[in-house]
Amino acid sequence: MSGEGKAGTAAPPERGSARLQLISATTTTFKAATPVTRLRALRARVRWMLERPLTPYYLILGSTMLLVVLGLVMVFSSSQILVMEHHLPITFFFRKQLVATMLGTVMLVLLARTPVKALRLLAYPLLLAVIAGMLLVAIPGIGVMVNGNRNWLSFGFFQVQPSEFAKLALVLWGADLLARKHRTHTLDQWKHLLVPLVPGTVLLMMLIMLGGDMGTTMVLVAMLFGLLWMVGAPLRLFAATLGIAVVACTALIITVPHRLDRLACIGVTKPDPNINCFQALHGLYAFAAGGPFGSGLGAGVEKWGQLPEAHTDFIFAATGEELGLVGTLSVLGLFAALGYAGIRVAIGTKDPFVRYAAGAATTWIMAQAMVNLGSALGLLPIAGVPLPLFSYGGSAMLSALCAVGVLVSFARSTPGAKAALAARNPTRAGTFLARVVPRRRTTARKPAARPARRER
Fold it and tell me: Which residues are listed as membrane-spanning (predicted)?
């Protein structure tokens, strides 16, 4: 058969061809095949689906939507006890998160429809706006302090955290800077590779550290390493930069007592009177209480005062208690799908700006997720960073959805995706409306003339 490959496996189907009937038309053959042959056929089909031009586009949108919806559910569930303690409406945190999600969705749609050239024009204005905002945060009387960190600007009915948008500014500015140097063929020189990328990133990190937010600073460090990796920096440069980062982080941890205490909580599984690891221990207790399928939505007990910040930094632990191992693995799978799609966008383009920006945005989301998940699991010190697209936090949700909007714009700009979108069939809604409400004809249609009957 033309549709059969080696070992009796069917070739990957193509839309519009007879090979699309891979399973349905060969059900008997497929059932009669050996397990190895079935596995090879399934692997070929999965590979074909993953290699389609629009796969990153749909994976980014689908995983983001599921993470946001599940996050809203968990924010509502994990914050019920906290709102009752402060005599607030039971939907207080849920409504605020929902408003931030709606605004972020609008920004996602706008950025997804923005051309790549226009995104490059936003790089420097956004960077200057973020620097100005973080300078205002550092001024006493203007910046708002929450949980010991001065990172917010208050505008009455809402607060904004400029440091969250520093990540988006680094994505666009760093990618634009490296793309310009790539065009002039100067990236093979250390001077042009590091300046002004590293000084600009260090400036952002210093402004963030003025507010005491080391977790966001570490995410920016990961993004800087991601940009240097994608641009092809030599290994010795990585070693030197990593050494400087380790020394700086060690100094920041040693000079602040509570950071050193958090470092001592890594791997703690039982109470110790010499160290204060209350939050880390109860995060592990929440995972243990959840079991395979969890105790059910709203039925968790750790949020009754034992687990601080259950709706923000430790929302993954609350998810593990109420949704169990199945829920936590689902969250991990969605982040894995989002990371895979971001990498596909970065390696599937010839535009240097798109490659660097997509890689930096993917590094941002994945690094921040790893820091949050590692803190909740007791594998990393508690850094106080939210879980992207999932935890409570208006500024974090807005900036993360903006990053997803940039990724969607890049996914739509690849040549294969452009061709696939142009050739895509009309939507079902449009087809249904065309059938229900037919287009009105401007002129009467004349009946076709019948051919003259030929006499015998």
Answer: 57-77, 98-116, 122-146, 214-231, 238-256, 323-343, 389-411
Tokens matching residue 178: 């490296």
22-47 tens-digit pLDDT: 444 455 565 667 888 888 888 888 88
Residue 43, sorted as left (phi over 0), alpha (psi -120 to 50) or beta, turns out to be alpha
In the DSSP assignment, the letter for residue 419 is H
Residue with tokens 């409400």: 437
Closest by Cα among 169, 276, 149 to 215: 149
Structure tokens at 386: 């939210």
Helix (H) or strand (E) holding 160: strand 159-160
The enclosing H or E element of 145 equals: strand 143-146
> Does residue 196 have a cis bond before it (omega within 30 degrees)?
yes
Rounded to an integer, what distance in angstroms lies between the CA atom of residue 129 and that of residue 399?
Answer: 14
H or E element in which residue 224 lies: helix 214-230
The H-or-E segment that residue 167 falls in is: helix 162-183
Task: Give SS3 for 154.
Answer: strand
Euclidean distance between CA atoms 368 and 388, whole angstroms: 7
Give the pLDDT of residue 1.
41
Q: Which pLDDT band, with edges at 50, 70 and 90, does 395 fall under?
A: very high
Bridge partners for 4 per DSSP:
10
Residue pair 316/143 in contact (Cβ under 8 Å)? The answer is: no
Task: Provide the Cα torsion 88, 91, 94, 98; round to 10°.
Answer: -120
CA atoms within 13 A on the CB side of 118: 10
What whole-number distance in Å separates Cα of residue 133 and Cα of residue 143?
10
In angstroms, the CA 324 to CA 290 distance is 5
Apex 74 CA angle, 72 and 79, nearest 5: 100
The per-residue pLDDT for range 67-97, each reduced to its tens digit, is 999 999 999 999 999 999 989 999 999 999 9
**149 token code pair:** 């960190």
- Tokens representing 364 are 């941002």
Q: Name the residue with higher pLDDT: 366 or 236.
A: 366
pLDDT of residue 274: 64
For residues 29 and 39, what is the distance between their CA atoms, to the nearest angstrom? 14
Rounded CA separation 369/376 (Å)? 11
Report the b/e string of 170-195 with b at 16+ CB within 10 A.
bbbbbbbbbbebbeeeebeeeebbee
